[in-house]
């Protein structure tokens, strides 16, 4: 029976990691994997998380089941950072549940919109590949629209066009900040327009916020999400703590649901809980409990936010250095300075990407996506020289 299963293509990024690991060159540069790296090339555990984990080990008295909603203390402690300190539940209309990472949250959110009768998911392309994979797995129809213009700004015309023909029964998946893979986010005035259009067309927004704090700042990175939420009656937010708390493998995320009225929340959330039960039953506890302990302790919150500031500043510093190189062969690196988060796309063809890998030991995804956090002040010049060589 199981021989009916067809060979699936290997995940391209995981294959790239293997190639990189097998490369003996000591000056190789890994721009493929989507994790933050320090100037020394490490992905360390946050100090605030280490302290919280220590506390957790000392004080946790039971590991008995919590339920499909996970650690609600974690879910609620995060809300002021996501939705704003003044009214984090928007008048009692938002409730959440813990999920295994942002991916688990997206899986539940998309399964919920399908159950609710949504027929199409509008999605800017390119996007994080798992968005399309989850939609395809759930048999949800996708309607792609172009995300970015060739000059490196968001393609608002394409967005306006897709929304013009959209209506009730459609959902739109939006990256809250630090667009993956392009780094091209909407400006605040563009978010104002998106909020108005989405409300006018009665399209259900699903906002993926996986990098809060890594773009322009915690509040700045939530501008679009907050703007959309005050404009519409219903919305879903898929949140990941895996980047902004450095918890990648611990799988920490949350799904938030906003309804038109507080009384409608119980029915909607009961679907989230039932779907979780059928998928993973309960989310893993450890990482979320550590985040909760950080958020419950003022000193640890300060330490966490300081660590996040350092990461963001380093990313911006690398971006400025790349942007300062300007025109490099056929590439213009200047727009990278104004883009946000860890990722940007370089317009390189397959041969150029291969030459970068084989001749220069520079590893990047086949799409030309680079993780700028893979660069250090010590190797940026080597990288720019390699780009120059393969593009001229
Ligand atoms: N959304 C986007 C845009 C992402 O880039 C990622 C992670 N690469 C996620 C969601 C999911 O993150 P997690 O690792 O928490 O599942």
Walk me through the structure.
- InterPro entries: Aminotransferase_I/II_large, Asp_trans, PyrdxlP-dep_Trfase, PyrdxlP-dep_Trfase_major, PyrdxlP-dep_Trfase_small.
- This is Aromatic-amino-acid transaminase.
- Homodimer.
- Its EC number is 2.6.1.57.
- This protein has helices at residues 12-22, 47-59, 72-83, 101-115, 129-137, 156-164, 188-201, 218-221, 223-231, 265-279, 286-295, 298-325, 350-360, 380-391; strands at residues 29-30, 94-100, 120-125, 141-146, 170-175, 204-209, 235-240, 252-258, 327-328, 331-332, 343-345, 362-363, 369-371.
- With 392 residues, it is of the alpha/beta class.
- The strands form 4 sheets. Strands 2-8-7-6-5-3-4 form a 7-stranded mixed β-sheet, sandwiched between helices. A two-stranded parallel sheet has the order 1-12.
- Helix 13 (350-360) crosses helix 14.
- The chain is globular and about 60 Å long.
- The chain starts with 11 loop residues before the first helix and ends with a helix.
- The relative contact order is 0.17.
- The model has no long low-confidence stretch (mean pLDDT 97).
- 4'-deoxy-4'-aminopyridoxal-5'-phosphate binds next to helix 4.
Question: What features would you highlight for this structure?
Answer:
two-stranded parallel sheet, binds 4'-deoxy-4'-aminopyridoxal-5'-phosphate, alpha/beta, 7-stranded mixed sheet, 392 residues, 44% helix
Low-confidence stretches are: none
Q: Strand tally, please?
A: 13
**Share of helix among residues?**
40-55%
What's the order of the H and E elements?
A: HEHHEHEHEHEHEHHEEHHHEEEHEEH
Q: What is the topology, as strand order, of the major beta sheet?
A: 2-8-7-6-5-3-4
Beta fraction: 5-15%
- List the ligand species: 4'-deoxy-4'-aminopyridoxal-5'-phosphate
């Amino acid at each position: 029976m199981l021989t009916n299963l067809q060979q699936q293509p290997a995940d391209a990024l995981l294959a790239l990691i293997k190639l990189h690991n097998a490369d003996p060159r000591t000056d190789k540069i890994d721009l493929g994997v989507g994790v933050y790296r320090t100037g020394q090339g490490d992905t360390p555990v946050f100090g605030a998380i280490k302290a919280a984990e220590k506390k957790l080990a000392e004080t946790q008295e039971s590991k008995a089941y919590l339920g499909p909603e996970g650690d609600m203390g974690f879910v609620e402690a995060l809300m002021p950072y996501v939705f704003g300190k003044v009214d984090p539940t928007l008048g009692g209309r938002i409730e959440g549940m813990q999920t295994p990472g942002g991916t688990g949250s997206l899986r539940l959110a998309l399964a919920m919109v399908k159950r609710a009768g949504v027929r199409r998911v509008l999605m800017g392309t390119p996007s994080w590949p798992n968005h399309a994979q989850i939609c395809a797995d759930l048999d949800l129809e996708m309607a792609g629209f172009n995300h970015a213009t060739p000059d490196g700004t968001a393609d608002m015309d394409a967005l306006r066009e897709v929304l013009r023909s959209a209506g009730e029964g459609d959902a739109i998946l939006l990256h809250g900040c630090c667009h993956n893979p392009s780094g091209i986010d909407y400006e605040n005035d563009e978010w104002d327009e998106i909020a108005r259009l989405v409300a006018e067309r009665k399209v259900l927004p699903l906002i993926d916020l996986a990098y809060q704090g890594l773009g322009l700042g915690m509040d700045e990175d939530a501008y679009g999400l907050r703007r959309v939420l005050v404009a519409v009656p219903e919305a879903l937010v898929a949140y990941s703590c895996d980047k902004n708390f450095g918890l990648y493998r611990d799988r920490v995320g949350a799904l938030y649901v906003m309804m038109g009225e507080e009384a409608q929340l119980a029915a909607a959330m009961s679907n989230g809980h039932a779907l979780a039960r059928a998928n993973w039953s309960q989310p893993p506890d450890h990482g979320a409990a550590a985040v909760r302990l950080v958020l419950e302790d003022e000193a640890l919150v300060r330490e966490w936010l300081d660590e996040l500031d350092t990461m963001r500043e380093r990313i911006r510093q690398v971006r400025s250095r790349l942007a300062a190189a300007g025109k490099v062969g056929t590439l213009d690196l200047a727009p990278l300075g104004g883009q946000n988060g860890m990722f940007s796309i370089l317009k390189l063809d397959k041969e150029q990407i291969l030459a970068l890998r084989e001749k220069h030991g520079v590893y990047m995804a086949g799409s030309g996506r680079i993780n700028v956090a893979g660069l250090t002040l010590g190797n940026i010049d080597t990288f720019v020289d390699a780009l120059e060589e393969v593009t001229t």
